[in-house]
């Protein structure tokens, strides 16, 4: 503890003897300390220690890569400003160091574990100290050495330990004393105070020490051993009362100006907006309680453990006073209580974990799954280390400097010499502008996700979601006024950009290892969501987007792009041609976008100027604050880029890079496939030389990919471009010719990852199968803790996690890289990806053992029967069948539609694509399956009738009794499957008249479903009502919830062709 202008710096130092229990207990005793220096910390097999979100962990340099276990570790309390300290890289697993900056001094603190048998670590310590002092500009820099020095000398040890003062020990201690003298370091812990009690002999010794510069020694308030800290063995969103919240909000909204008559001026707009925001924030302040973080470092810690810790500390102080009497019973009592404290810590951790798993319900089990799948962590708070600019070796330590580097990376300035867009006249508007409706706003509020971080205004999504009926009448006029007044408020342009680490990066000292997430004003995001939905519907309906763009589009998935890619390559092989595939990587795709180019592309598509002008105003004058660690930067101006986190972002980037896909020349055998910012350029030709030349032309010709890159400020990183030559005639070690571009050469590779799947040059997908096996095995290793027979989650939940997390992850895009396993007549062996399925079935078997707790010799089919689980090859079939069935429903506007029809019509003999194999395996014929369009009805659409659905059967009976007394004819409909035949019927009832009945037989249950029959029943019911010419009102009842939902859903789903007709 040191004095500094009435402020103190509290440091705790302890060797925890590698004990997890000791370190866990210590975390609950050190909340008052600023820095904790640990020696021999607990390090698990994944090289993680144990900490909490209250602490930032400093590991030794190269901790993850060092073979030697780290024996020094420093914790910095999160309340210590990250701008006031910097970790010092020291190439040793036994030293961690940091520099603290105060208004009056610079402090270098070294935490050391010094082995008993050599002086290498203290020699390294001396070199690093000398280097720091030599490089410091300040002459008054102070130094602290503390830790487990493992040296014994009469200068600090008690005289009773004469047996430790051997020649060897004294010689090693003398080397340390020479270093202390050279650096003028003074011992802070008084002589004779022991720091270690031997486990067996109970002898008290002094291996730990603290040495500091004279300036710090003069400022010292206290340095002592804290027996009460000796361990054994060495934010949620608050609960809101929403009825009360709504009541308070209604009272405040009554004071708002009337918006029903319109908003005539920008000034009145701002007055209404400010009043609305004040009503929301005041209601939140009045009714929402502040979150109360748990008082303990870990959730499993309890008041009982805290009381026991205090009792251990009390006995420890008494035992210390009686240390001269080793036979005193207080020592046995203290040791017994300390051991009991350790046992209860271990028991509390187990009990808390078991209770958390056992109490998991259908909803929270996914939280458990995500927690486990996230992988290992030390539980501490992360920190952005010193950063350097590209091409520089100078590390910036100050948070202000780091924020500027991150700002320059996330929001690069558009270069001044960018080629301007063509001044060709724009085409007429492709569609008429329509104002945002209140129904659209209701839908947008309903889609908001709960428990997400709020923007600068502090109003979370839950408020708009739960109070939509109160807010939409005000939001509607405000949103429409942004178009009518040609005004976008500055309040909605401000954001907070959170800096997050990209996982798995090797160097976090470069800004590219981080990604920005914009926390924007929720009200502005709701408006953006409405505009996005409106524009996307029109673009899809009119077919204005590139046909080979698959990302973020209705009715399209990543597997569609992969199927088109593989089908194209196989078709080329069948015609004795080859294919070359270039996978492009756009550096900083979203932040690099130039708004003016974006506006030009939107007008070129025929998007009305009203929308483009609104977007121009939205993107102009944006400002953001960067947030990382405990630091929030000053406001930065955003001059370019597309906001990542805005609902418009995906749509805008699809428009921005459409030229990159359109510039592929089909007549030259070129094709470009896109999924947001992932693009694959494919060239088909007779030789690899010709396909390589085609790719070169695609990249470098006028109007090609590089021209797009230069004019859109979207740089291709040559080192990340991947070239795969798909030629079945190439030898094992022959990758084909390289692609020579003007700014570098791209060497061909055996396989490249595209949209999460490894595409190899033979399309054998062996690497993808290995990757899938690795993913499945990793999942099992992580989730094994959940399925223990004692203390795990229920079998039902483990099974759900297996079926809905492991299988979809492991078998992602299986229809592309797995050929269904099936028996073929006159063929002894099974046909298909038998070996791959057998390998992956190992994961399935291990999962069955994990879920059932069966012995390892138990037959797999027995476990499957107990779990009511399909055999693995049938689970694979189920997933592939579902995907291929969807492909059979694609409309003619989809680029795969033609390929699916061709593959279903003819099962080719050579070079069969995944489409050929799967369609043949399941005997699917697209002509016999309904077509589902990509879009159906416009945003905000509501059915011209009211739909009421009862919560359960009893409620339905009660409502039916009331419904029977309503005026007009009453119609009852039904659909059913009887003896393999599917049919529907409807009956119309009017008091005093004979019932009118319509029936329809759809056909066999092999070709039709009860769901279809229920919809046909509704169609029959409406037909009966239409015949009642005198009826002014009518009611129709059905007993199928799915078909009632479908009748009011505007998006396309199976069976909608019946409703639409």
UniProtKB/TrEMBL annotation:
SUPFAM superfamilies, sorted: DNA/RNA polymerases, DNase I-like
Gene Ontology MF annotations: catalytic activity; nucleic acid binding
Domain Reverse transcriptase intervals: 481-759
UniProt cross-references to CDD domains, sorted A to Z: RT_nLTR_like
Cross-referenced Pfam families: Exo_endo_phos_2, RVT_1
PROSITE patterns, alphabetized: RT_POL (PS50878)
Matches recorded under PANTHER family: ENDONUCLEASE_EXONUCLEASE_PHOSPHATASE DOMAIN-CONTAINING PROTEIN-RELATED, REVERSE TRANSCRIPTASE
Protein name: Reverse transcriptase domain-containing protein
Organism: Rhodofomes roseus
């Amino acid at each position: 503890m040191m004095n500094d202008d009435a402020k103190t710096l509290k440091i705790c130092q302890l060797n925890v003897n590698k004990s997890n229990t000791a370190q866990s207990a210590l975390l609950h005793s050190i909340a008052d300390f600023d820095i904790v220096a640990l020696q021999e910390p607990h390090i698990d097999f994944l090289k993680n220690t144990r900490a909490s979100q209250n602490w930032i962990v400093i590991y030794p340099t190269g901790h993850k890569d060092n073979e030697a276990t780290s024996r020094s570790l420093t914790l910095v309390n999160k309340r210590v400003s990250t701008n006031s300290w910097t970790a010092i890289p020291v190439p040793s697993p036994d030293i961690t160091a940091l520099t603290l900056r105060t208004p009056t001094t610079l402090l270098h603190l070294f935490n050391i574990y010094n082995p008993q048998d050599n002086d290498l670590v203290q020699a390294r310590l001396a070199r690093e100290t000398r280097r720091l002092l030599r490089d410091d500009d300040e002459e008054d820099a102070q130094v602290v050495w503390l830790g487990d020095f493992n040296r014994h000398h009469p200068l600090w040890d008690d005289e009773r330990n004469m047996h430790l003062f051997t020649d060897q020990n004294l010689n090693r201690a003398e080397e340390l004393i020479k270093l202390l003298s050279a650096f003028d370091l003074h011992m802070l812990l008084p002589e004779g105070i022991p720091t270690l009690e031997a486990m067996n002999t109970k002898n008290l010794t002094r291996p730990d020490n603290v040495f500091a510069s004279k300036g710090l020694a003069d400022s010292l308030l206290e340095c002592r051993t804290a027996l009460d800290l000796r361990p054994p063995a060495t934010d949620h969103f608050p609960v809101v009362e929403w009825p009360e919240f709504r009541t308070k909000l209604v009272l405040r909204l009554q004071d708002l100006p009337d918006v029903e008559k319109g908003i005539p001026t920008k000034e009145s707009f701002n007055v209404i907006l400010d009043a609305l925001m004040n009503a929301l924030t005041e209601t939140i302040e009045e009714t929402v309680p502040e979150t109360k973080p748990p008082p303990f470092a870990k959730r499993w810690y309890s008041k009982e453990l805290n009381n026991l810790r205090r009792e251990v500390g009390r006995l420890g102080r008494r035992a210390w006073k009686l240390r001269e009497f080793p036979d005193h019973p207080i020592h046995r009592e203290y040791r017994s209580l300390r051991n009991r404290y350790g046992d209860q810590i271990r028991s509390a951790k187990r009990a808390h974990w078991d209770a958390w798993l056992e109490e998991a319900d259908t909803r929270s089990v996914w939280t458990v799954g995500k927690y486990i799948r996230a992988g290992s962590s030390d539980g501490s708070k992360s920190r952005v280390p010193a950063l350097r600019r590209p091409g520089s070796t100078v590390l910036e330590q100050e948070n202000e400097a780091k924020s500027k580097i991150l700002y320059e990376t996330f929001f690069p300035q558009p270069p001044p010499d960018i080629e301007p867009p063509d001044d060709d006249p724009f085409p007429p508007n492709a569609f008429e502008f329509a104002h945002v409706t209140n129904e659209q706003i209701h839908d947008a509020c309903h889609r908001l996700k709960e428990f997400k971080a709020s923007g600068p205004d502090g109003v979370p999504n839950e408020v708009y979601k739960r109070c939509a009926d109160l807010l939409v009448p005000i939001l509607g006029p405000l949103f429409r006024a942004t178009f009518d007044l040609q005004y976008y408020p500055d309040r909605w342009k401000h954001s907070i950009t959170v800096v997050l680490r990209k996982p798995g990066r090797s160097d976090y000292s470069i800004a590219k290892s981080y990604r920005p997430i914009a926390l924007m004003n929720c009200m502005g995001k709701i408006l953006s969501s409405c505009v996005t939905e409106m524009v996307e519907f029109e673009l899809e309906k009119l077919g204005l987007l590139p046909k080979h763009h698959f990302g973020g589009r209705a009715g399209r998935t990543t597997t569609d792009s992969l199927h088109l890619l593989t089908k194209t390559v196989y078709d080329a092989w069948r015609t004795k041609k080859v294919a070359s595939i270039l996978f492009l990587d756009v550096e900083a795709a979203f932040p690099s976008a130039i708004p003016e180019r974006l506006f030009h592309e939107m007008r070129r598509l025929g998007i009305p100027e009203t929308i483009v002008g609104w977007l121009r105003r939205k993107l102009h004058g944006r400002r953001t604050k960067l947030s990382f660690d405990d630091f929030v930067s000053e406001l930065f101006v955003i001059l370019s880029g597309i906001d990542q986190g805005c609902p418009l972002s995906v749509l805008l980037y699809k428009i921005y890079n459409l030229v990159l896909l359109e510039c592929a020349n089909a007549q030259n055998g070129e094709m470009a496939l896109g999924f947001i910012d992932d693009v694959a350029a494919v060239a088909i030709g007779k030789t690899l030389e010709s396909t390589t030349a085609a790719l070169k032309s695609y990249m470098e010709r006028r109007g090609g990919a590089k021209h797009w890159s230069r004019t859109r400020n979207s740089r291709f990183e040559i080192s990340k471009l991947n070239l795969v030559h798909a030629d079945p005639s190439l030898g094992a070690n022959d990758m084909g010719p390289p692609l020579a571009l003007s700014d570098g050469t791209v060497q061909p590779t055996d396989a490249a990852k595209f949209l999460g799947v490894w595409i190899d040059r033979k399309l054998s997908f062996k690497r993808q199968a290995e990757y899938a096996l690795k993913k499945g095995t990793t999942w099992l290793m992580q989730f094994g803790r959940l399925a223990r027979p004692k203390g795990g989650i229920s079998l039902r939940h483990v099974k759900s996690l297996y079926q809905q997390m492991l299988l979809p992850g492991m078998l992602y895009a299986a229809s592309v890289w797995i050929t269904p396993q099936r028996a073929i007549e006159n063929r002894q062996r099974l046909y298909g990806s038998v070996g791959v399925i057998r390998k992956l079935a190992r994961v399935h078997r291990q999962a069955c053992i994990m879920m059932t707790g069966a012995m390892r010799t138990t037959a797999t089919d027995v476990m499957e029967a107990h779990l009511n689980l399909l055999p693995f090859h049938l689970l694979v079939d189920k997933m592939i069948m579902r995907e291929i069935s969807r492909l059979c429903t694609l409309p003619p506007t989809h680029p795969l539609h033609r390929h699916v029809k061709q593959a279903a019509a003819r099962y080719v003999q050579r070079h069969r694509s995944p489409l050929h194999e799967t369609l043949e395996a399941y005997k699917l014929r697209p002509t016999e399956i309904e077509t589902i369009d990509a879009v159906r009805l416009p945003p905000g659409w509501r059915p011209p009738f009211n739909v009421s659905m009862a919560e359960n059967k009893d409620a339905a009976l009660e409502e039916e009794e009331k419904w029977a007394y309503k005026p007009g004819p009453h119609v009852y409909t039904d659909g059913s499957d009887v003896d393999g035949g599917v049919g529907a019927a409807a009956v119309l009832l009017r008091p005093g008249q004979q019932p009118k009945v319509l029936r329809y037989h759809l056909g066999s249950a092999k070709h039709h479903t009860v769901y279809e029959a229920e919809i046909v029943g509704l169609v029959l019911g409406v037909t009966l009502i239409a015949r009642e010419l005198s009826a002014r009102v009518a009611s129709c009842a059905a007993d199928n919830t799915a078909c009632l939902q479908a009748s009011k859903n505007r998006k396309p789903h199976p069976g909608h062709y019946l409703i639409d007709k």
